[in-house]
Amino acid sequence: MQIVVQEWERVLLYRDGRFEAILGAGRHRRVRWRRRRVRVLIRPRLLVVPSQEVLTADGLSVKVSLTVAVRTADPRRWYEAVEDADGFVYAGLQIALREAVGARTLDELLAARGALPDDLRSLVGGSAEAVGVAIDSLSLRDVMVPAELRRAAAEVATARAQGQAALERARSEVAATRALANAARMVAEQPALLQLRTLQAVAAGGATVVLTNGPAGVEPIGTGRRDG
């Protein structure tokens, strides 16, 4: 018989129920008598683990979903090891997801979402390889937190922002008070600075400056309009 194998598949050849060969891409000639062939697709495929409700280490319920890209690395093992190799890997992913999430608190889970896929790969990689499946990529689709927890987190964030704003206002007031105290000390030590500052205000215009009870020989200075 003539067997044509496509690039995206491999053909397992059995004789009298015993494995004989794996046929790669191309055209092959074999004697049909007492032989059976099985086609196995080796193209990458996607396994989607829908939202799983899992308890975190601090007893909070979250829903987590996964997207996993897999391919058949060993066609013979994929066909012979178990009845449904993809289903076997899928079940392993569900169990590993529960273990990985259950070992973290909610804060740890949200803060280290990038580390969770690596943990899952290490938990599932060995069993997947045992059935001829290779995991090419594994990523989190969603981490869904209950509405009441989202509201609580929003309230905490708002309170934190308000506290930060109050702290900044207090710092500004302290800085302004310190600047006034420094100015008062400088004027007390050098009274002439007050007259220089007054002259600057007069030169700038737009304001009326009146000096009273000045020292002898000093005329009052003003920028306002004088009637009479």
Q: How would you characterize this protein structure?
A:
With 228 residues, the protein is of the alpha+beta class. It has 3 domains: 2-41, no CATH class; 45-145, Band 7 domain (Tetrahydropterin Synthase, Chain A, 2-Layer Sandwich), CATH 3.30.479.30; 152-192. It has helices at residues 75-80, 85-102, 106-111, 116-130, 147-189, 192-204, and strands spanning 2-5, 9-15, 18-23, 26-29, 35-41, 45-55, 61-72, 133-144. A hairpin with a 5-residue loop joins β6 (45-55) and β7 (61-72). It is rod-shaped, with a radius of gyration of 40 Å. The model is unreliable at 216-228 (pLDDT under 50).
Supply database-style keywords.
3 domains; 6 helices; Tetrahydropterin Synthase, Chain A; alpha+beta; 228 residues
Name of the CATH homologous superfamily of the largest domain: Band 7 domain
The computed structural class is: alpha+beta
Segments where pLDDT lies below 50 for 5+ residues? 216-228
Discrete helix count: 6
- Give the neighbour order of strands across the main sheet: 3-2-5
Question: What is the overall pLDDT average?
Answer: 80
How many structural units, i.e. domains? 3
CATH C-level class of the largest domain is Alpha Beta
Task: Assign the CATH topology of the largest domain.
Answer: Tetrahydropterin Synthase, Chain A
Q: Which overall shape is indicated by the principal axes computed on the Cα atoms?
A: rod-shaped
- By DSSP, the count of extended strands is 8
Helix content: 40-55%
